Amino acid sequence: MAYIGLCTNNKKKSKNTGASDQCLESRLKLPVLSNGFKFPDVKAFKNVDVWKAAIASKSLVPLYDVFELADASTEDTKYETGSFSRVVEKGVEKITFECYLSPCSYEALKSYEDTEYDELFEFNAEGDYSGVFDKDGKSVRGRKITNLNVTRMRATKEKVPYVKVEITFQDKDDVLDQVIVSGDLTKEDLEGIYDINIDVIESTMTSLKFKVTSGCAGGTEVNTLTTDDLEVRLADGTLYPTSFINPIDSIYEMTGAEFVSGMELHSKGTGPVIVHSNAMYEAEPVSLTIPSN
Q1: What is the Cα Rg of the chain in Å?
Q2: Domain around 47
Q3: Which conformational region is residue 73 in: left (phi greater than 0), alpha (psi within -120 to 50 degrees), or beta?
Q4: Are residues 103 and 139 in the same domain?
Q5: d(CA 195, CA 198)
């Protein structure tokens, strides 16, 4: 006797349809990639500080403004003959959009292709934002994506250069577990981390003078760093005591008893990201070269 274990009773329970209002999310404005980060509950999902901490730890990565959003989804493919009908290929949910980015920002965005950042939260045009419930029905995660494709298109007579982005979702039906909220979180809270460059312009045994800039060519001066943001360490990682002088004419200064070559100037603390209320920065450590007297 044959045994076929393919058919199961998947009959769904019908739900009541009463609803006086239909609450709809607005269109996608800013995607936020996730490496699997989960908010423990909806309350945390609405907490701005939790979002900022996750961005600072690089668990969440805000991308860029979305323009020309379009739906490129496909329907289920069915085989039908007579009264027989069977889905042979499930349709996929896919979106395309454009971003207007410099080559540097394009490089940053493209670096997330084929990485562990395979989930997506959506921050929308009217300030609402969404994720989905995880299997526990309590924690909130991003929607699984199977493909992020980023291509930069050249300028033409009719159009400026732009970046074309395609995102394919793993399961078009996971929106049945969607969590859509609005609250204190704003687009301004979803700035990405800025790379900054530390350029030492003068170094002696007792003084380091340097500039801090951001941007592809270092064209934007950063004059808001404080003593809480930068430090000097010995080659073995030991903290070296210094005094910090706020910038004068965009030039910072740190003083110490005896700087030596091989020390490193870098961001303070255990993490590489400098967190301010209105921006986050990250700098590569700078190895110091101190001229001998």
Answers
A1: 25
A2: 28-78+88-190
A3: beta
A4: yes
A5: 10
Within a domain: residue 49? Answer: yes
**95-142, pLDDT tens digit by residue?**
999 999 999 999 999 999 999 999 999 999 999 999 999 999 999 999
Kindly report the pTM of this predicted structure: 0.88
Distance of alpha carbon 41 from alpha carbon 32, whole angstroms: 18
Nearest to 117 by CA among 138, 93, 146: 146
SS (H, E, C) 160-200: CCEEEEEEEECCCCHHHHEEEECCCCCHHHHCCEEEEEEEE
Q: Strands 119-124, 77-81: parallel, antiparallel or unpaired by DSSP?
A: unpaired
Residue that is last in its domain, among 166, 190, 214:
190
Q: Cα 206 vs. chain centroid, distance in angstroms?
A: 40
51 & 62 share domain: yes
In a domain, 133, yes or no: yes
| Nearest by Cα to 97 from 153, 139, 20 | 153
Q: How many domains does the chain have?
A: 2
Q: Do residues 146 and 220 share a domain?
A: no
Please write down the long-range contacts of 273-279, taking CB distance under 8 Å and 24 or more positions apart.
Answer: 273/56, 273/57, 273/58, 273/193, 274/196, 274/225, 274/229, 275/52, 275/56, 276/224, 278/188, 278/191, 279/191, 279/194, 279/224
Q: Do 172 and 93 touch, CB atoms closer than 8 A?
A: yes
Q: Which of 142, 170, 190 is the last residue of a domain?
A: 190
> Which one-letter amino acid corresponds to residue 279?
A
What does the pLDDT look like over 1-22, one tens digit per residue? 666 666 666 667 888 887 778 8
d(CA 176, CA 137): 12
Q: Per the structure block, which two tokens stand in for 195?
A: 């790379």
